[in-house]
Structure formats: C-alpha cells, structure tokens
Amino acid sequence: MAKGQRRRAAACALALCLAACAPGAGKTADAAAEQARFDEFLNRQFVETMESDYTTAHVYLQDAAAFGVDAAAIPVDLGARPTQQAFDAARAETDATVEEFNTFDRALLTPQQQDDYDVFRFEADLAQAMNDSRFDYQACLFESMSGLHYQLPTLFSDWDVRSAQDAQDLAALLADVRGYVDAALAYTREQAQRGLLMIDFDSVLDYCAGICDAGMDSEVLASMCAAVDALGLAEDEAQACRQAICEAFETSFLPAYADIVDELERLRSEAQNNEMGLAMRANGRDYYELLMRRNTGSDMTVEQVRESMEQAYDECLRTMMALLASDASLAQTMLEPLPGTGYTDYGSMLDDIQKKMAADFPAVGDLAYEIRDISPEIASSSGVAAYFNIPPLDGAAVRQLRVNPLGVDVGALSTYTTVAHEGFPGHMYQYAYLYENLDSAYRKAVVSMPAYTEGYAVYAEYEALRYLDGYDDGLLAVYRCNELATYYAIILADIGIHYDGWTQAQFADFMREMGFVMDAEGVEGQYRQLQANPCAFEAYYVGYWQIAQYKAEAREAMGEAFSELGFNEALLEAGAAPFSVVARHIRAYADGAQQTEAA
Length: 599
Hints:
- The protein has a 3-stranded mixed sheet with strand order 1-3-2, with helices on one face.
- It has helices at residues 31-52, 54-60, 84-101, 111-130, 148-157, 164-193, 201-214, 219-229, 235-270, 284-296, 302-326, 329-334, 346-356, 376-379, 413-422, 427-437, 441-445, 450-463, 473-499, 504-513, 520-532, 538-558, 564-573, 579-598, and strands at 369-373, 386-389, 399-403.
- Helices cover 61% and strands 2% of the residues.
C-alpha cells in the first residue's frame, strides 16, 4: 500500500485535483498553441493542488519554488474540513475546472498529452459524479482499515523533518489535529442524524484507546522527536523544537483521540448504526457503483465486476485441480506449513530480487532505500502488512519501506511477497520508473489511480515468485491460485454485502458454498471488515486481474514475439492511469512487436 498520497478526511477531497480556474479560450486549430495551453492547464492544476494542501506539498516537494509553487502561500494545517460549505464549494470548483477542460481539442494534442487528457477526463467525470449532493455524507471517515484515526499517527510517525522550519510546521500541524478531528466528528454526528452511520465501533475504539493509553510515552511522539534530533541543530534550538512538538501533542493530538473515544462511545449507545452494507442506506447502491469505478480504474459496472470475479475464481479452481491431479504430492504439501524462503533479513531479499528482475523489467536509476518496522503502536490490528512511503519528486531522498513487526516471520513466503509488493519489483520500483520516465508533475503527484498502482504491485509480487530458489514451480502456482481465489471470493462477498444487502448469515452461507471453512468468530470478523470498508480489496485484485488479462491476450496474440521485458515496459510507461489508457499502450506494444517480427 503506497502511503505517500494520504487520503484526505474530507469527503470533498476528490475535487482537490480539480482546482478552480477561470474559463479558458475557445478551441483553436493551431496544434502547437493547443498543446502549450493544455500543458499550462495541467501545470496550474498541479500548482494549485500543492498550494491548497500543506501535507501533499511537503510529501512531494523539497524545493517548492522549483515547481512554481509558492510555499509561503500554503496554510500550515491538515487541510479542508468536511463541512456542507466545503462540499458546495467543491462542486462549484470542479464544475468550473471541467468547463475549461472541455474547451480542449483532444485531436490536436500529442500522444502523451492525449494520455493526460484521458486520465483527467476519467477523474473529472468521477469527481463530478461523487460530488452529487446525494453523496455528501456517504463516506465514512473512521473506516476500520484506513480511517483518519489510523492515518494521523502514521502520517506523523513518518513525517520527513528536513529543517528547523519543518519542525516548527510539524508542531503547527499537531496543534491543528484537535480541530481537524472535531470537524470529522461533527460530520459523523450529521451522518447519524441522516441515518448514514456505518462504523465498526469496536475496532476504531480499540485503536484509539491504545493511542490514549500510550499518552506522552507514545512511539509516534518519540519518532517525531528523533527526526528533530537527526537534524543536528544546536541543542537550544533542537530543545525548542522538541518542546513545541511535545506541547502540541499533549494539548491537541491526545485530546483529539480522547474526543474520538468519547463521541464514538456516545454514538454507539445513542445512535442507529448500520451494521449491514451500503445497500441498506439511501443512495448507498449508487455510491457503491462509484466506489467500484474508482477502485477498478474502469467503467465496468458492478455486475460486470461480479461476472469477471466469478469467472476468475472458477479459473483458479480449474488450474489448481489440474495441478493437483498432475502431482498428487502437492495436495499434501498444501496441507502443511509452506517451506521458508531462507531469507533472514529484508535487505538481502530486495537485493536478490533487484538482480534477478533485470532481464524482465526496464532499467531505472540506482535506488537508495531503507527498511524500518512500523511502530507496534501504529501497526496494531490495522491489517496493513507493510507500506512504501512515496518519495519527493525532487531531491535524492532515501526510499522508505515500512513493515509490520507483529508476528512476522522474515523467512515466510508471505513476507517475501509483501516485500516484493512494496519494494522490488513493486511500488518502490514502480515509482522510480514513473519519476524517471514521465514528465508531467501533475501525473506524478496529483493523479490517484489505486487500481493501477495497487494492481501493478500485486502483479509484481506474483512475478517475483519466479525469482525464488528452492521452490517447486507447481507448489508456487497452487499457492498463487489459492490466494487469488480467496480474494476473488472476498470481492464477490463485498459486492454481496454492499450491493445486494447480505446479512452476516447470507455471507456465511456464501463462503461455505465457495469452499471456505470458517468458524463463527472468523465469519463475524471477515463480515465486519468488509462491511466497514467497502471496496477495500478491489483496487488490488480487480486491478491485478485486468493486468493479467492484458498479459494473457498479448501473449496469445504475439506468440514468440512476446517478451516479459516488452510487456512490462508497456505496462509501466502508461503511468498511473485508467485501464483504458493502459490497454492502449499494451496494444501498441503488441502491434509494434508483431510488425517487427513480420518484417
């Protein structure tokens, strides 16, 4: 899970990348002028996005002025609050931006700009749809897997402190936490009044209670103070920075978590909480359709996704049955603990993958990276196994990989695939390629395409299985099919809960019919996770499925002309984009390679 682009708590955040602009000039027949105008338009979106959100600007920019961004114009706070006024403003801003965007003639743009145009079109259409007033209070800000209660400690624990000014700004951000959280709680109270409350209270309250219990002994606070110490400031200056951070943590951050506990405890006892899916809420099914579009990076309907996942699940089962029939020993092996990889540290694992992937993936510049544990205080029961912190667009920052230390066996196969997902050839490599090969700062930093980004990382982790030594190929194939079948079934269950309105009993019946053995506690836990986090897995596994389909089609069409390197380059050169754009690049690769072969 790449965490550099933090999810904003405000439901209107989808419009951030569509900042307001004055209507532009009309269409022009002059291609060069149209191309220059379009570049200026996208650059303006980038600059206005950076200047409207301090945390985003800090993550992506070390030298803001080099990108035309006025750092002094950026308010040092946590961003927009989720208020009705903010929702109304987002609608107006988005509509104004789309009005200008509609003046461009796509046919006059360069091929790269046409990609940019199609990416913007996809996001703009989705933003306008989600900005409909029917959806103003649909989003849950306290989702159990990735709610703001989890995002804030992660944000501050990983905060990149580059200067004394950064340390002062960090204290200002901490001082803003209580107001930011109180606005989120006011939004949640409004949800309750509208009959739209849908929170896994136990999970969120357990997590927040842990933050409160840690108090000033928090590892989050210790991490921020350590970052100040690493600056090497004079002791009196460093002490002043640490004191400001500690005071803000004590007077704002910790009280904010106490506020969450108090308010959610009150809502749990007094308010009506929907303990089923979005289908049970007014406009919930329509909202879920938009979540599906966002998290699949496509225009597939919910029913099309359902049909695709059913077919994919059946294909996985057929493949496993064929493999088990061809080698009876595999069945017994799968009933036993999987053999270890032999790795005892993450660095060796990544270094080996990096060497072995060179023949299959296009080269990128040297990567400096470090791997650190996620704080146990943050890791908790969030379900996040690891994440990669997206680096700034400029400078030579060391890439940061964080891993969950709770009960992790470094030598386990699951640990290897997680590291491949987040590191090589996954997110760490993916972003390095993006930064080196795509010119548009807007595309690098503002565009959010989770289905492409996470779908690629799942693809990468399965590709990395071939670089393991000492494993039977059949065993790895069964492992992969078994894991994919599980997630395809989970996505089908997600659709059942949020689109069809399944009860927990219906969910249990479905999982049993699909061949999963789950006790009552397991059924309840899985149902609660899906119910409280709609569309949580689609970006990963529907995204992966689309990439796998493109690869199978290209391999079949190209025959011996197909190459892993060629396909992966086509997949990566598209950048973060809807899959209609990705497919265009892969088709161009297949057509070009076939023509070369024929010649």
